[in-house]
Design a protein that fits this description.
- Pfam families: NAD_binding_8.
- With 472 residues, the chain is α/β, with parallel strands linked by helices.
- 35% of the residues lie in helices and 16% in strands.
- The chain has a seven-stranded mixed sheet with strand order 7-6-12-13-14-11-15.
């Protein structure tokens, strides 16, 4: 029986482990932390009984993928829940816009921009299963559905600020700016629309589901499935050198490229080592977990029913803030992603107090405290919010990086989403998962298709490893 060691137990490491174990490989997972999960961990960060996700909270690309079709997590205990409103974007004066799972309902609230919104997201939503078959693979491949991918690419290649100006109202423009800002990229840069178009379409096709009981449920379900297939998981085990691993047939590294270069020092081809050392990380996040009496009192009423709220004001404000962050400057009014997971999963709240997780975009490695800035930004669109807060728990960019070494400098998306790295990550190669060392692969979110608790990077990498085993 061939053997494999997986270093790291984030969703991609566990997906790789499951994929190998299902093919008869003897799998051992080594995790440095005392618990599995990576970015899919949850805990009581503020008050007893309030469950907060420690990073990944909503999972719009986790449904109907190659990995999810091979491994039915729901049949093994995982439950998904959807908010009534998938995401929203409040503006001053109680105005705003919201995305429902229905394209038509979303468009109906956009007034003069209704028809234009439908023309973009209607066809993309209808073809999204075909689009994701190609989108969730390395981009250097012969597409299975070239026409559907070409339509998606027409919009994805544009700067987000350019695509947003296709609409005329502040509401529609801000709505797209907010979802595009998930890329942590200046909205004027090429391909900065890609993630916004993908996440926006996913909201209409599948919604933005949360895992009932916290994102930790994703990791724990995958771990149970792995153990049931004979796999082993060892926590509290840090790997710094490939020689510590013995001589397995396969090694999978769910790590940052720089960490992979360190582990493989002395055996990694020089050209690959240079590429891994040059891999660019993006801006950081500053997290504040809030315990909020009755939830956030947004003036924009649909935002009270929204799972995710994008806080940043108008297109112009978000554009300016994201540009500053990439330049290493802390904005006075940063873009903030607010997760209201208890809207979809009420069991996370307790006695009318709700867990709320806010992530402000800040410069890489920023050492300041954004707590009051985040509170002021939310208060701007939800007067009275400050008075409802019972408790806060903060994590700086540095603390986020210490908690998860893959998040270098606090970069929670594991790599800058610039045009080069959107296409070629972590290096230019026909097989981006291969390290150039026979049988050794990198499978973290630094590889295609990037961040998200969908497990597709691990699944893709494991399939590459299985092809190697078959060809030996």
């Amino acid at each position: 029986m061939p053997t494999a060691i997986i270093v790291g137990s984030g969703p991609n490491g566990l997906a790789a482990a499951l994929t190998l174990a299902a093919d008869g490989v003897d799998v051992t997972v080594l995790e440095a932390s005392d618990a599995v999960g990576g970015g899919t961990r949850s805990g009581e960060m503020t008050l007893p009984g309030l469950l907060h996700d420690q990073c990944s909270g909503f999972h719009p690309l986790a449904l109907d993928t190659g990995f999810s079709r091979q491994f039915d997590l729901e049949s093994n205990g995982l439950r998904w829940a959807l908010p009534e409103v998938q995401y929203s974007h409040p503006l001053d004066g109680g105005r705003g816009a919201a995305v429902w799972q229905s394209v038509d309902r979303t468009a109906a609230d956009l007034g003069a921009d209704a028809a234009s919104y439908q023309r973009i997201f209607g066809p993309l939503t209808a073809r999204f299963p075909q689009i994701t078959e190609d989108f969730l693979q390395p981009l250097l491949h012969f597409p299975e559905h070239p026409l559907a991918l070409a339509r998606f690419g027409t919009y994805a290649a544009l700067p987000a600020g350019v695509l947003a100006r296709r609409w005329r109202t502040d509401e529609a423009r801000a709505l797209f700016a907010g979802v595009a800002a998930h890329a942590f990229r200046p909205l004027g840069s090429l391909m900065s629309s890609a993630i916004g178009v993908a996440l926006g379409t996913a909201a209409h096709r599948y919604g933005w589901p949360v895992a009932v009981g916290g994102s930790v449920s994703i990791a724990s379900t995958m771990a149970r499935m792995l153990v049931s297939r004979g796999g082993r998981i060892e926590t509290g085990t840090t790997v710094r050198d490939h020689r510590e691993l013995g001589d397995p047939d396969i090694v999978m590294l769910d790590t940052s490229p720089s960490a992979a270069a360190g582990i493989l020092a002395g055996v990694l081809p020089r050209r690959v080592e240079r590429a891994y050392r040059r891999f660019r990380h993006g801006p950081a996040a500053f997290q504040v977990a809030f315990a909020v009496e009755g939830g956030i009192p947004w003036s924009h009423e649909p935002s009270r029913r929204s799972g995710t709220v994008h806080v940043g004001g108008t297109l112009a404000e978000i554009t300016a803030a994201e540009r500053q962050v990439v330049r290493g400057e802390m904005p006075e009014r940063p873009f903030i992603l607010v997760g209201q997971q208890s809207v979809a999963d009420p069991g996370r709240a307790s006695n009318g107090v709700h867990p709320v997780d806010a992530y402000a975009h800040v410069p890489a490695g920023w050492t300041g405290d954004a707590t009051q800035t985040i509170i002021s930004q939310i208060e701007r669109f939800a007067p009275g919010f400050r008075d409802r807060v019972h408790h806060v728990h903060t994590r700086s960019a540095r603390q986020i990086a210490e908690h998860n070494p893959n998040y270098v400098g606090g970069d929670i998306v594991t790599g800058a989403n610039n045009p080069r790295q959107l296409v070629f990550r972590p290096r230019v190669a026909l097989d981006p998962y291969s390290t150039g060392v026979p049988g050794v692969y990198i499978c973290s979110a630094a590889t295609p298709p990037g961040a998200g608790a969908h497990g597709m990077a691990g699944w893709n990498a494991a399939r590459s490893a299985l092809a190697y085993l078959a060809g030996r």
